[in-house]
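A protein record in our archive is deliberately plain, so that people and models can read it alike. The tokens are whole numbers drawn from a learned vocabulary of local backbone shapes. For reference, a complete record is included directly beneath this paragraph.
>
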Amino acid sequence: MKLSVPERLSLLNILSTVKGTLITLRVVQDLATLMGFSDDEVREYELRQEGNSYIWKSGAASKDIEIGETGRKILAAEFEKLGTSEEMTLQLLPLAEKFISPPQDIDLKEV
């Protein structure tokens, strides 16, 4: 799956809040390693933190990251939790839709 710098940062943020079994946390740890940035990427993208924001060079390449079935399920569950708790944001929506299907047939009268 191709993931941009902001998508990887968002997923790292989401992964940092996951709670679960030892097995779940081992998978989360592996995912965080995959999503992380190498020294070369930090230099090439000029990636840095300023206050509560991350800054990087525009045009930074997306990275193809293979996420296994268990990792996809964990991330889908975390995005579902964000949606259920009404903490999902428009910024996260396109990323969430890579892991969960958008709802079908929404009755706007219930919204």
Remarks:
- The radius of gyration is 15 Å.
